[in-house]
Amino acid sequence: MPRLILLRHGQSQWNLENRFTGWVDVDLTEKGEAEADKAGMLLAEAGFHPAVMFTSVLRRAQRTGAAALEAAGLSDVPVIADWRLNERHYGGLTGLNKAETAEKHGDEQVLIWRRSYDVPPPPLAPGGEYDFTADPRYAGQPIPDTESLKTTLDRVQPYWDAEIAPRLRAGEDVLIAAHGNSLRAIVKLLFAVPDDQIVGVEIPTGNPLEIELDGDLRPTAARYLDAARAEALPALP
């Protein structure tokens, strides 16, 4: 039966600065690089050898995945990058400090923007510093100006169905190096987590989540490879 590992990127510079990052292409911190290296050692200890790694087009995910593969002695694994595995687009919150935003708009409103399933932040104004419409990585694509977790899932699921699930159904092991919300969307799909509970699912940076699947891609077992840093997992369906 196939194994899937979900790997959230290591700590980024804007994670450290407590800023809403979304699609901004920030890099890893030294801590994030160390988390990626440790993730690779954990992959090696688990005997995990994926047939392919899927990742986003953002460097923090790509660098985490590449460093983990190198540390595991798996640098030959092919890599497929796609924007649909990007982090959730934080709209008009992009770049803002989370604490300062809470002071301005109130803790309750910011909590709704961050943690509700289907309420997006205000849209990103066109033409600003974080306007991604001219980025060649997204040429011809339906670029959002804000996203909720629900609309993040709406773009992740077709990519999962078309590109990732067939590899797993063929019996291949797969690594996905991506982001907190794109991986949360996949967890919702696999574990059938209710809308009102998925926002409470946390995925720690740099800690590989190993999921064993049956032939119908239903989880039969799940564990974080670094048990000391593990978050609570959803119940198996």
Kindly list the characteristics that best describe this protein.
alpha/beta, Rossmann fold, 8 helices, 6 strands, 37% helix, 2,3-bisphosphoglycerate-dependent phosphoglycerate mutase, isomerase, His_PPase_superfam
- Average the pLDDT over all residues and give the rounded result: 96
CATH class type: Alpha Beta
Any low-confidence stretches, pLDDT <50, length ≥5?
A: none
CATH topology assignment: Rossmann fold
General form: globular
> How far is the first residue's CA from the last residue's CA?
17 Å
Count of spatially separate domains: 1
Q: What structural class results from the helix and strand content?
A: alpha/beta
Within CATH, the superfamily carries the name Phosphoglycerate mutase-like
Organism: Brevundimonas balnearis
Site (Transition state stabilizer): 179
Pfam family, one: His_Phos_1
Family: Belongs to the phosphoglycerate mutase family. BPG-dependent PGAM subfamily.
What does this protein structure show overall?
- By secondary structure, the chain is α/β, with parallel strands linked by helices.
- It has a single domain (3-229), classed as Phosphoglycerate mutase-like (Rossmann fold, 3-Layer(aba) Sandwich).
- It has helices at residues 13-16, 30-45, 59-71, 98-105, 107-115, 149-169, 180-191, 195-198; strands at 3-8, 52-55, 79-81, 174-178, 209-213, 219-224.
- The longest helix is centred in the last third of the chain and has 21 residues, at 149-169.
- The protein is globular, with a radius of gyration of 17 Å.
- The mean pLDDT is 96.
- GO terms for molecular function: phosphoglycerate mutase activity.
- The active site is at 9 (tele-phosphohistidine intermediate), 87 (proton donor/acceptor).
- Belongs to the phosphoglycerate mutase family. BPG-dependent PGAM subfamily.
- Homodimer.
